[in-house]
Amino acid sequence: MSQLRVNGTDVFVVAVSYLRLGGNDARDLMQAANDAGSFCFPNNVAGSTPVIYVPKAVRPVNASTAMYSWSRCAHAYDTVITSVGAVRTTAAPVPPAQLRTLPGFAGTTFIGLGSIPLIFTTLGAAGAKDIPAAVRAKVAATCMGPGAWTHSAALYPPSLASFADTLCSTSTYEYELAFSTKGVGIRSDHFTVLDPNAPQQPAWTSGYAITRLHP
Questions:
Q1: Phi, psi of 10 (to 5 degrees)
Q2: Residues in the chain with pLDDT values less than 70
Q3: Among 3, 9, 23, which Cα is nearest to 112's?
Q4: How far apart are CA 102 and CA 210, in angstroms?
Q5: Going by C-beta distance under 8 Å and a sequence separation of 6 or more, which residues neighbour residue 210?
Q6: What does the pLDDT look like over 162-171, one tens digit per residue?
């Protein structure tokens, strides 16, 4: 814990960083352990572009045979979170699931940064009263079933099509890391992606969330 003094007020900050739990690293680990993880990607039975998902992966997913499943994808990511989170480092003294046992957690407001507002806004869930529930519903409507790729692709202009490739995978991971019992376990009423006191979001972060503490 670090103590900062801001505008005459003492603020106590706890910073925890889990290496390899960033979005790209976590997806790589998930795919490596699950034969490319086709259940984390939408089906593209029409065979339109893209023919494969995540072309830079060691084993890219065949888009026409992929079939997204929330339960299977979430379980695969839970395994990654648990495995990586079990490795203790100076920056990560406790597993993700134990963060909610730290003093002050229950009264903390979490603000999603980095790709979280991008993904949740794209899904149309960022402004919902219950963001986790909205994300689950939007992912189900967008990612599940034959030909689901058309729904994912429609959310992005052609210049950003590469983001559509991993929308279903990334949104599932972000949900599991932030809200599940294997992850941090943030309550829906303690989470937002909108901070009225921050005029500009960071362009890139090394983690998925920061906390706004009220001393």
A1: -80, 125
A2: 1, 6, 194-215
A3: 23
A4: 15
A5: 110, 111, 113
A6: 899 999 999 9
Burial of 183 (0-12, 13-18, 19+ CB in 10 A): buried
Q: CB under 8 Å to 22, separation ≥6 — which residues?
A: 206
Backbone angles phi, psi at 59, to 5 degrees: -130, 90
C-alpha to C-alpha distance for 36 and 59, rounded to whole angstroms: 6
Tens of pLDDT along 174-190? Answer: 999 999 999 999 999 99
Closest among 107, 114, 116, 113 to 12, alpha carbons compared: 107
Q: Which residues contact 52 (CB under 8 A, 6 or more apart)?
A: 60, 61, 62, 63
Nearest-angstrom CA–CA distance, 141 and 144: 6
What's this model's pTM, rounded to 2 decimal places? 0.88
